[in-house]
Amino acid sequence: MELFVSILALGSTYALLAAGIVIIYKASRVVNFAHGELAIVGAYVFHSAGFVTGASLSAPSLLITIAISAIGSALFGVLIYFSLMRRLLGRPTFVAAMVTIGLAIILKAGIVVIWQSRSVGIAIGRQALFNFAGGGRITWIDLVSILACIALFAALAGFFQYTRLGRQFRGAAENPLLAAQRQVNINLILALAWAFAVFSATLAGVLFGSRSMLSPQSTIIGLSGLTAALVGGLDSLRGAAIGGVLVAAATYLTARLISPTLAEAVPFLILLAVMCWRPWGLFGTVEELNRV
Amino acid sequence: MTTNSPYLHVSYAETNRVLVEPYQRIVVAAIVAAIVCLPFVAGGYFLHLMNLCSIAVIGAVGINLLTGYCGQLSLGQASFLAIGAFTTAILSQRFGVPFFLAIPASCCAGAVVGFVVGLPALRFRGIYLAITTLAMHYAIIYVLTNYQAIVGPSASAGISVPAPSLGGFTLNSERGWFYVLLIVAALVVMFALNLSRTYIGRAWVAIRDRDIAAETCGINVPRYKLLAFTISAALAALAGSLGAYFTTVVTVEEYTLELAIVYLAMIIVGGMGSVIGSVLGAVFITLLPFGVGRVFEAFPWQLGTTAFGVQQAAIGVAIIGFLLFEPDGLIEIYRRIATYFERWPFRYRELRAGGSR
Amino acid sequence: MSEPIGQAPLLDVRQLEVVYHDVATAVQGVSIEVAPGSIVAMIGTNGAGKTTTLRAVSGFLPAEDVAVTDGTISFGGQSLRSLLPHQISRLGVVLVPEREKLFQTLTVHENLDFSLTRARQPIRDAVYDYFPRLAERRKQVAGYLSGGEKQMLALGMALVCEPKLLLVDELSLGLAPIVTSEIMTILQTINRNLGLAMLIVEQNAAAALRVASFGYVMESGRVVFKGEAEKLLKHQDMREFYLGDRKAGSYRNVRQYARKRRWWG
To answer: Quick check: helix, strand or coil at residue C258?
Structure first.
């Protein structure tokens, strides 16, 4: 049981990362290589915000910290869109992907410069919620991870299926120029996509940071997030959720049953396997593989 | 009879000329003379930087042939460099193989690995290809990390490589390395220039632009894609191997994904699809961190440990800046200036097929 | 050559020049006027520059790295040249493109609802009246519709945007003649009922001139002839080169016959 919950908790972190990557891909066919870095930067910002507001577990300052991080991350996403991604509309998508690689470099260097590569942890919710006889335990933060993930995915699914903005989103993802002609403001849609992506990345980073120490090297979780997104299908939210759980399960089980060092290799092994057998993932639309 | 016109060619030799205008030949001769005389006027530090640039040029030319000419976006450059370095290290340290055998052997190892990495390329294009090469990069680095942990004196000390020696002459001075690396880099550049002007180069450009159309024209697309991977990986292995001899120690930690992106940055900044662009980009990106460091030294506040971070950030800024504002790279800036002076009062150069002008 | 008389034109394109990638001039010195409430047709073969003109008016060209280098485009007195596609669309100039004219992954209902506001609901219901076939297939994914139904859906989507000027690009492409004439008739009905001005680009000159009131003929990026539709239908050059009214004769006659189009009168 404890294994199950741990996998779900880790899986929800990966699923949140994958959701951000999928949203940006759905909106603009761009693969965001900076997602891991965005998550860790968000977590560092949360930690520093907590420092500033003197947050411990007291409710008001914690809420303020959460509010600052949430709004700040969304605004940062909008900023990234308007300053960088907007100028790349109409260019081949791999150019935008390379710009996200450049952004990843800058963000990682930013962690080194601003926080001096200190390792920090987010000490919230670490108390046990439930203790098992064999010594394992479920913490509050595990529960929060899983619930937050479920809530977010449910909200997204509803948004895309039932609201007009969600339908305009899907249309704009398919054909931006036509959507523009049909009086949909493309900039609004893409800015929303980026705001959401950075917000969910920050959420994932904070949840991750409450379980392990953060350092500039932690940005490697971006690889797991990308793997999860690919396993599920780059344009499928359902796939992001399931992919996240699958990658988490594979990593966790490998670490527990075989060896921890091999567990580092699991994400890219899965990546290789996906590319060999089913590049478009479990639920992705089968694009011709010549999408550039 | 020859004419010096870039438009009117009266012999095959003229169509194959690299330096078309007379002033270009003078400029190139002057540059070559200046470079040859450089070690006699410059200090050791400067020569060291130039050596780093030469090694980078070899690697950058390699990846430009793959990504710039053939259009196969590859994130695996660092793993090819690592293969070259490790092969050299193993051969020269464990088996005592002399450098004139170790270096070609490293190139062959790189070519083989490049071939293997290129096989998935036949299925994918664009982002999916990049992700596949990314996965291969991690796989290769993982294997090498485990190897180094087993073999090396300690897990991260790496493998030491003796300096190359022939007869009684050992290569371990900056000046000696300068000439050796310069000659190798020049040979590589000439090789790449010639390759780009032959059928192979044109086939690559056709594949980059529209590989379905290339296939219908009779170009064997899988063969040329694999050839691009093989040659590019061999050149990267050559760079890695020379780097191993130059720094005399090989550690797997320096062959990170960031290094692959640094090489991509070199060709983005220099100009994809242009061999001279690779040279310009390699020099620019190699010298950029040192330049940034020098600039910050002039400022009153000290960066200390964060200097490294700022230098890394500078590379990211260079990538984004060039992609947003000058996507054709430094070579395009040069071409615009050259066109202005050559063609004035006309504005445009004649269009030439093959993607490069 | 007469021109539409009376009021100021709704769309006024003057001396338009469009250049592709700094290299190839697609459209040169083209002047087109659309009077309010009229249907104007642009006729020509492939490569004449008709689609380019239409895309220049609706602001699509900068996204494709094509530059409008000269000329003015004004709609109701306002210049369209520096506006973005969604701004032009909100002014009332709506384009039905030649390819990629609807969202393949959304259903018919979702496509029509794309630009819906509360005020536009009666228009959306009217679309179902004009195109009964769409009403039957409300829940079907648009990618699986037949060619004619797709064209109807594309027109319906454009109508929901409350256009003041409808630009239709190559309506008949890939459609059977009977479907083409059905849709053209519906367009004529809409024009009469709503007084909606339309600019139609067509290769099928006969079908277009039957519904239009005024026509322009384009060749190689220039307007070579213009006139009222009845006049064009009767003109000698038009009959021979665009309407397929070749003087029948023996093969020898046809081979030696190489009359240059003069476009006189």
So the answer is: coil
Q: How far is the alpha carbon of C262 from chain A, nearest alpha carbon, in Å?
A: 39
Residue A120, strand partner residues: A214
Selected residue of A35, A41, A88, A101 to mutate for chain B interface (largest B Cβ count, 10 A): A101
Q: What is the interface size between A and C, counted as CB pairs within 8 Å?
A: 65
Quick one: angle between helices A186-209 and A140-162, nearest 10?
170
For residue C20, what are the β-bridge partners? C24, C66
Contact A230 B312 (CB under 8 A): no
State whether A167 and C64 contact (CB < 8 Å).
no
CATH (one of 1.10.3470, 3.30.530, 2.40.128, 3.10.450) for B42-343: 1.10.3470
3-state secondary structure of C198: strand
CB C42 within 8 A of CB C216: yes
**Nearest residue in B to A289, CA atom:** B124
Of A35, A100, A29, A25, which Cα lies nearest the Cα of B264?
A: A100
State residue A127's pLDDT score.
60
Give the C-alpha distances (Å, rounded to integers) separating A56 from A69, A124, A145, A203, C84.
Answer: 16, 8, 19, 18, 50
The H-or-E segment that residue C94 falls in is: strand C93-96
Per-residue pLDDT tens digits for B265-296:
999 999 998 999 999 999 999 999 988 888 87
Residue with tokens 């590569």: A117
Q: In the prediction, which pLDDT does C26 show?
A: 86
- Convert the pLDDT of each residue in B120-169 to its tens digit: 878 888 888 898 999 899 999 989 988 888 876 665 567 777 777 766 67
Query: What is the pLDDT averaged over residues B316-330?
Result: 91
Contact A185/C at CB under 8 A: yes
The Cα–Cα gap between B156 and B148 comes to 7
Query: Residue C200 forms beta bridges with which residues?
Result: C41, C168
* A140 residue type, one letter: W
Interface of A with C in 267-286 (CB under 8 A): 285
Single-letter amino acid, residue B232: S
Residues of A in contact with B126 (CB under 8 A): 92-94, 290-292
The chain-wide mean pLDDT, for chain C, equals 84
* Structural domains in chain A, sorted by start: 2-121+148-290 (1.10.3470)
Asked if C166 has any chain A CB less than 8 Å from its own CB, the reply is: no
Write the ipTM.
0.84
**Residue C8 CB neighbours (<10 A):** 11
Give the domain ranges of chain B. Answer: 42-343
DSSP bridge partners of C95: C167
A181/C103 Cβ within 8 A: no
Strand, helix or coil at A241? helix
